[in-house]
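user: Kindly work through both lines:
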Amino acid sequence: MIVLARGRGAESRDLGDGSSPSWSPDGRRVVFSAKRGGRSQVWVMYPDGSDQIQLTSTGGENPAWSPDGRFIAYTFNTRVYVINADGSNRRQATTGDEPFEQDPYLCWSWDGKSLLYGAFYAPESARPSAFYIWDVETGSQVYKRGDYHQPVAWSPDGKWIGFVRHGEVWAQPTGGGEARRMATGTSFVWSGQPLALAVQPVPVYPPTPTPTALPPAVVQAPSVILVNPRNPTTLYIGAANGVLKRTQAAGNWVAANAGIMHPLKVRALAMDPASPSVLYAGTDGERSYPGGVLYKSVDGGQRWAATPLKGVDVYAVAVDPNRPNTVYAGTAKGVHKSLDGGASWAPVESGIRPNTAITALAIDPTPGKPGSGEGSPTVFAGTRSGEVYRSVNGGADWSAVGSLEAAVNALALHYQRPGVIFAATTEGLYRSSDGGDVWLPIAGGIWKIPLNSVTIDSLKPSVMYVGGPKGVFKSNDGGNNWGPASTGLGGLGVTALAIDPTDPQVLYAGTERGLYRSGTGGISWE
């Protein structure tokens, strides 16, 4: 979905289905990709959405207009192509022998004469990541460098290329020669001076800055919603465009991404229950970074710093409510644990199948197996492949306690009945009443309906909500029977759900068109 927002107070306009929009240099047209009746293609339109013209026929994604307006670069099937702005003269910039694992990252030179692209080779190639410079006029590849991490960007004068490699910022002469190590950091911005950069250092946490006004941000299909329990009008959202924050019930959403490397998608958020200004954000590198990063903020999201857990996508984060310095991260390669508030991490995966993607976490603060009153808190881990693992010793050992045969997207523990846990999956809702030993699907009204979220009323745990592509459903009897609770959502799918812990009548639902609120326990939304 592409939406045109003309500024604060102005009405937004829906321009239709599509993604990856890019303005022409003169601001008169927009290029974008859209999948309409087949594979994704590159399209162009006027800013009001009119005169939409398809420029490609063989596929295209992630278009980028050259600064001089003459060319459009795009990717498809991990290859890079360039066409004239009218769609003619299609050329392949990649040589065809790079078995890239993902679509390359694109960056034009300031004059539009060269295209910089970089990506990561597929694992079977046993080759390091690399970036290339491609000459538009000659169609030749004029430079190549290996072993880099994004971001990567031209200097304003076009003489240098900045890039990140193993937590260090480097500057490479465009014409070749030795690269210069500039600083330790994970991101940078070129200044207007030659060979001068502003660097985001890691892992030292910067001092809390004086709050400044931030521009309004657009909420994009939230992956997770957090409500500050001490100040429930303060909300956080993790989405494709990073972390967003709102501090008043009717206030604007603002980007709270300082320190988070663009364009990492925020898949997970967690809050220190003892100190709500301490937050953790797990990111997903998707197509543009070799794995994600787990970030920490100590000032309510004003600034973030990368923790040592990086290079792997992070799908879930959970803080031990009784030991807030103990943090668990569910990643694409198992569970990681920190005992010092994220300063250091170690994998805790004994008993978990290697390279298992952990997509959901839940911590039962009751020591030992739920209801036993013995040992360490119990930790549950849900997986993309459908297994549920349980650890009764703080993650030191895990045992598989369920095979749900569907990806587990969320886990929720019953607040008053130890041993009762729910799993929202791509094939409906499952419940265990014995601490995870036996799992049974729930049929009453939501049989086999794909779900992204499950949340429980903390004051009245018999009231529950689930959300997914078919909207919100509510149960008043502890999850046995369910009915639709989506009036006002307009048929939108729900990507995330949250409940106000101080007023359970207040719910928040994330959708592809932004955040909706219910003040009536799901009876109606706005």
